[in-house]
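tokens incoming
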């Protein structure tokens, strides 16, 4: 019997690896087995296609390619040029952007590129102007001092972390929180939704250089047309970080006011979340910021990863096919079915539902912290992550929320019927888990009590749910 191409490719690759370090080959095989068996509801994860995965495992990894297509600081980049140009072309066509920069290694790196481009474009600094026109040697000590002062403490207004914003939008664990004078906008405590009047008010008071929209835990659409109007009203550059929902933009689920690309000055994204590509990042912008964006490497990025750019080109080509739009629609249908299934069983959801790929459960109604809930679900074969809810009384470590998302399970082919079954499993685990206590009898935010037999039973049911939907069905490692 002859094997299909995918099985042959991965088996052969593992055989070659096994000959050098068998433990790595074993770990790669074990990772596939684990992913096949787990009900993955992590909103930021997905499963890239075999073509995307295979495009990364080759000699493109061996090339240095600093610079941009056709303007490299290294010789022999003609083939890297081909794949980088293809990835950028697919990105421009897919998103309707004038310019695409596909070198960022991750979402954080894409944001750094964007922050630098905006600073370089917007900050009035004669010293910086000299530096940009490559008269760096003419800069005096006083120029450098002025340049650092002028670039420092610029203002950024972004979504608050506990409303679903991201660390890279000016929060302390990320350099953006140290570089920028940051203020954030939250959501309406009653509805959980962004209150655009409050955003406008904050912008008028604070006069940010950069207004950032985008999130990793907000289960609703954002009106980017209104956000752009707010940015324009105070002269801010409007940046959208679509890391989480790029797949919904690519699949034309988010259109009109909800498509960030026509409204933002600059858009950043990851390529590995709902977009279903390789781990990486990307920046889209108009012609005004293109030159600054293209300086990402070496300004804030290490050398490009040509093998990952090759995989980006493959994944973006896939995202341009009509079936990707079906996929994007099914992601949202599934998230809504999951939300409805949970609501019907009495689970509290932030904003009362979803219109994107993610659902944010407030598990305080079950008497649990996010941490307890996350662990109890994991014991039961359901992989999620804890997440703060707005005004979270338990802080960012223990939290009161569980974030779940449907991009990965939708890739496997699960549909609305399975989402209802998933809601039942989640509800059963959470309602059967009790908060635990510390040795001295005080209540614990981490310990919990869950009957191992029940966890086992749910794990089996979660697994049964997946049996009709094999992961990488064409890949048989033997
Ligand atoms: C995931 C995420 C990032 C960071 O992406 P990495 O690839 O992990 O660096 C940035 N911004 C938002 C909004 C995200 O959700």
């Amino acid at each position: 019997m002859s094997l299909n191409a995918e099985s042959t490719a991965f088996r052969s690759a593992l055989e070659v690896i096994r000959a050098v370090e068998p433990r790595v080959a074993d770990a790669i095989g074990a990772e596939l087995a684990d992913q096949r068996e787990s009900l993955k509801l992590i909103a930021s994860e997905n499963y890239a296609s075999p073509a995307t995965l295979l495009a990364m495992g080759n000699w493109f990894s061996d090339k240095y390619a600093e610079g941009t297509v056709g303007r490299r600081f290294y010789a022999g980049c003609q083939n890297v040029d081909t794949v980088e140009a293809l990835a950028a072309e697919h990105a421009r066509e897919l998103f309707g952007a004038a310019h695409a920069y596909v070198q960022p290694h991750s979402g954080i790196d894409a944001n750094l590129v964007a922050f630098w481009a905006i600073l370089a474009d917007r900050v009035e600094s004669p010293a910086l102007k000299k530096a940009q026109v490559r008269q760096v040697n003419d800069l005096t000590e006083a120029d450098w001092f002025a340049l650092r002062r002028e670039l420092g403490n610029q203002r950024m207004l972004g979504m608050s972390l506990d409303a679903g914003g991201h660390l890279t939008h000016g929060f302390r664990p990320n350099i953006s929180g140290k570089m920028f004078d940051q203020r954030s906008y939250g959501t309406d405590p009653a509805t959980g939704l962004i209150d655009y009047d409050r955003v406008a008010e904050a912008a008028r008071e604070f006069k940010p250089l950069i207004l950032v929209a985008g999130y990793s835990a907000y289960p609703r659409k954002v009106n980017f047309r209104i956000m752009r109007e707010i940015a324009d009203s105070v002269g801010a550059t409007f940046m959208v970080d679509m890391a989480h929902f790029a797949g919904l933009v690519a699949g034309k689920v988010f259109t009109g006011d909800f498509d960030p690309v026509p409204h933002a000055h600059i858009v950043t994204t990851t390529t590995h979340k709902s977009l279903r590509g390789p781990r990486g990042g990307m920046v889209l912008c108009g012609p005004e910021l293109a030159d600054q964006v293209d300086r990402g490497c070496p300004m804030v990025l290490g050398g490009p990863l040509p093998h990952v750019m090759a995989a980006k080109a493959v994944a973006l080509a896939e995202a341009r096919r009509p079936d990707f739009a079906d996929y994007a629609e099914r992601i949202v249908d599934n998230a809504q079915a999951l939300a409805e299934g949970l609501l019907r069983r009495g689970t509290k959801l932030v904003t009362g539902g979803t219109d994107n790929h993610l659902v944010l459960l407030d598990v305080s109604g079950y008497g649990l912290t996010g941490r307890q809930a996350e662990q109890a679900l994991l014991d039961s074969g359901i992989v999620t992550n804890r997440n703060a809810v707005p005004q979270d009384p338990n802080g960012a470590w223990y939290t009161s929320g569980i974030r779940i998302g449907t991009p990965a399970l939708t890739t496997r082919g699960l549909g609305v019927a399975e989402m209802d079954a998933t809601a039942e499993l989640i509800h059963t685990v959470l309602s059967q888990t009790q908060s635990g206590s510390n040795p001295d009898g005080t209540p614990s935010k981490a310990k919990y009590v869950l009957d191992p037999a029940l966890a086992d039973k749910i794990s089996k049911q979660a697994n049964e749910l997946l049996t009709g939907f094999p992961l990488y069905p064409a890949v048989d490692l033997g």
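note: The mean pLDDT is 95.
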